[in-house]
Each structure stands twice: as structure tokens, then as C-alpha cells.
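[Q] Does anyone have a clean C-alpha cell version of this?
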Amino acid sequence: FPKGAQSAAAQDAWRAFHAGRFQEAVEAGAALGAAGAAVANKAAGVYATYLARDDAEALAVLRDAIARGEQATRELPDSANAHYFLAFVLGRYGQRISVVKALADGLGTRIRQSLQRTLQLAPDHAEAQLALGVFQSEVVDKVGALAARLGYGASRDGALAALDRARELAPESPIVLLECARALQRLEPRGRERVREWLEAARAIAPADAMESLDVSAARAALRGLG
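[A] Here you go.
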């Protein structure tokens, strides 16, 4: 792609993403190589999380995204989003195969390193702060406080600090509020009222695009699960 055509194609891919045409966004972004990896991998993660027919399809989509993300970080080593969206799809893949298996396979270290690099390049990256908090909450929940700290540099306090920072940076993002609520359920089983408060806030947000509509629907479902 010539530079101008590449820019126009990237904009088309992002338009497809915001309109909810996630498969189209993946294909359009992937065709651009490293320059389109961010939109392709964001779309892949959303599709795998909410719309894939089954685990087999979701894992196939995420494996392709991981390979694409690894290539993007090699070609664009100083791009915060290249590192973030690699961490993003690694995290979604780990959730699909189970957090315990993901940690045993070494994905935890890879996610942590990708997020650390993202935040070195862009300390106010809200999604990376969120992902760091979610990652730490999952590790603490699955392996316990001591093993989480020694093996992965994860802790309850570190998770809460990252989640707080994410909410400061993006206070009206449904996914931030939704994932903060889920993480808090793992870290503080008695923190039910704050969990409900954040889910209510997520549910009340008017979605800005198709992804946010899916996130708001997920918040509604989580509220029903609270009873």
C-alpha cells in the first residue's frame, strides 16, 4: 500500500470495527501488516470474546492475532499499541484455555512483559492499566498471594492501584467499569456493593460503538448474575 492508501485503508478498518463488522475489521487490518495490527487484534479479541461460535473458532482467531501481534512488536518496537494489543490477545487466549493453564504455559510472563513495555512507552494508556489490574487479579485469585508475587510480580494492592488508575483515565468506559467490577469480585468477595455500583455505572452508559454496546450488555448480564 502507498502511504496515503494505507492510511485510508486503516481508517476503513476502524470504521468497520466501530460499526460492529469485526471480521471485516480483522481482515482489513491484517492486510496492512504491522500498521493494521492494532485494529485487527482489537477486533479479533472482541469477536473471540463475544461472537465466536465456539471455543475452537475463538482460539483459532486468537492464535492468528497472537502471531500478528508478535510480528507487529518486532516491526514497531516503540509502538505502545503494538505491545498492548499483543498483551490483549494473549490475555483473551489465556482466559479461553483457563488462567491456570495459561500460567503453566508461560503466557503470564509474556503478558506482563508486554504490558510493562506498553506502560513504559505510554504511562497513561488506560486499557493497559486496566489489563495490568485484571492480569494481577486473575493471578492472585488462581495461585495465591505469595506465588503471585514471587512468580509474576502480581499483588492485590498492585491490581487495585492499576484498576483505580484505569478508572481515572477512562471513567466513562463500559469495559473499564465492567472489568474493574469483575476483578474486584476476585480480589474482594465482600466488596459486593462496589461491584454493583460499577456494573450499574457501566450499564447506564450510552454506547459509543458496537463494542461498547456488547460491553454494556455484558454489564447487564453481570448485574443479573449478582441477583
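[Q] Thanks! Anything notable?
[A] The CA atoms of residues 140 and 147 lie 8 Å apart.
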